[in-house]
């Protein structure tokens, strides 16, 4: 269960003062918003939200004109909800306390970063600021991830689940998501506990690709620490640049031949696996994380291949 621990560091009196100050600012902002009875201009709308049980909220709200700014760690909002904006919020199945589960997920790696709760204001604030914002049940107030640590999560999209009772903030973290300093809050394996193993902050809940990257990183660390273990093909590659590069060329050629020679698709899958593995060893040898590659690909989504190549020069 995630609780707001962003204000656990520093002087207590100062933090209490900041906390009260933020509550006053938010209260004044809400009152001014209601009093002005202003509305956002909506150029178009995708239709009744009941037609979108599984949907991207930011896609549906992309035509709403919202202004916001982050000043000294506090979120100042200057917007009022259009009736259609309000109807979308009404589509969310808030529980009896007005909350839904809010999960933050890394847009590039797919890693689940943390889990908290959001109310209507937290969700609206996240859309406005593009920073992951949650509702603290212990303090009964909003909090933005990174308020004191500066490890914000930049939100690129927001998704509702099929029952509309939980949301995902799909975003890019500025640093560790967990207050312990771990990359994510999920590093305790239930199977490890059953096997009497201790939780390891380096052993994250990784998908296959990142589990492979972690293994390659361990082999690199073993070389640096001069640990004498049983023979390892990965360590051998890391110790021989010429061998590594020759294997990448070899696997790339074999992958290409599965197409040119009309080989079975299972062969293509196998050769792609070999090429990807060897390429990831090269990335580790160069000190590059696979996440950096995925980030480059994400940023190219809006560009044609021709435009992207022209931008390189």
From TrEMBL:
Recorded metabolic or biological pathway in which this protein acts: Amino-acid biosynthesis; L-histidine biosynthesis; L-histidine from 5-phospho-alpha-D-ribose 1-diphosphate: step 2/9; Amino-acid biosynthesis; L-histidine biosynthesis; L-histidine from 5-phospho-alpha-D-ribose 1-diphosphate: step 3/9
Protein's UniProt name: Phosphoribosyl-AMP cyclohydrolase domain-containing protein
Classification via InterPro entries: HisE (IPR008179), PRib-ATP_PPHydrolase-like (IPR021130), PRib_AMP_CycHydrolase_dom (IPR002496), PRib_AMP_CycHydrolase_sf (IPR038019)
Domain Phosphoribosyl-AMP cyclohydrolase: 114-187
Organism placement in taxonomy: Eukaryota, Viridiplantae, Streptophyta, Embryophyta, Tracheophyta
Keyword list, A-Z: Amino-acid biosynthesis, ATP-binding, Histidine biosynthesis, Hydrolase, Multifunctional enzyme, Nucleotide-binding
A single GO molecular function term of this UniProt record: phosphoribosyl-AMP cyclohydrolase activity
UniProt-listed CDD domains: NTP-PPase_HisIE_like
Known catalytic reactions: 1-(5-phospho-beta-D-ribosyl)-ATP + H2O = 1-(5-phospho-beta-D-ribosyl)-5'-AMP + diphosphate + H(+); 1-(5-phospho-beta-D-ribosyl)-5'-AMP + H2O = 1-(5-phospho-beta-D-ribosyl)-5-[(5-phospho-beta-D-ribosylamino)methylideneamino]imidazole-4-carboxamide
Example GO BP: L-histidine biosynthetic process
UniProt-listed Pfam families: PRA-CH, PRA-PH
Keyword Cell cycle listed: no
Matches recorded under Gene3D superfamilies: MazG-like, Phosphoribosyl-AMP cyclohydrolase
Signal peptide extent: none
């Amino acid at each position: 269960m995630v609780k707001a621990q962003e204000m656990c560091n520093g002087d207590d009196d100062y933090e209490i003062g900041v906390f009260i100050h933020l509550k006053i600012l938010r209260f004044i902002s809400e009152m001014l918003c209601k009093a002005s009875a202003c509305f956002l201009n909506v150029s178009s709308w995708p239709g009744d939200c009941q037609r979108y049980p599984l949907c991207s909220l930011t896609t549906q709200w992309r035509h709403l004109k919202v202004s916001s700014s982050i000043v000294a760690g506090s979120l100042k909002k200057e917007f009022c909800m259009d009736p259609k904006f309000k109807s979308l919020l009404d589509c969310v199945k808030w529980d009896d306390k007005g909350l839904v589960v809010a999960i933050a997920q890394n847009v590039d790696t797919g890693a689940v970063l943390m889990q908290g709760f959001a109310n209507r204001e937290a969700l609206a604030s996240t859309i406005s600021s593009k920073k992951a914002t949650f509702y603290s049940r212990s303090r009964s107030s909003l909090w933005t991830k990174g308020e004191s640590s500066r490890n914000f999560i930049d939100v690129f999209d927001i998704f509702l689940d099929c029952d509309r009772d939980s949301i995902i903030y799909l975003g890019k973290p500025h640093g560790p998501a967990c207050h312990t300093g771990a990359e994510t809050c999920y590093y305790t394996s239930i199977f490890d506990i059953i096997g009497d193993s201790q939780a390891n902050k380096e052993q994250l809940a990784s998908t296959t690709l990142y589990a492979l990257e972690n293994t390659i990183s361990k082999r690199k660390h073993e070389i640096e620490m001069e640990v004498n273990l049983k023979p390892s093909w990965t360590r051998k590659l890391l110790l021989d640049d010429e061998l590594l590069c020759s294997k990448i060329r070899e696997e790339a050629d074999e992958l290409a031949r599965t197409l040119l020679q009309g080989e079975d698709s299972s062969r293509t899958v196998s050769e792609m696996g070999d090429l990807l593995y060897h390429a990831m060893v090269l990335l580790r040898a160069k000190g590059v994380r696979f996440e950096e590659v995925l980030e480059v690909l994400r940023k190219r989504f809006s560009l044609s291949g021709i435009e992207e190549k022209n931008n390189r020069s």
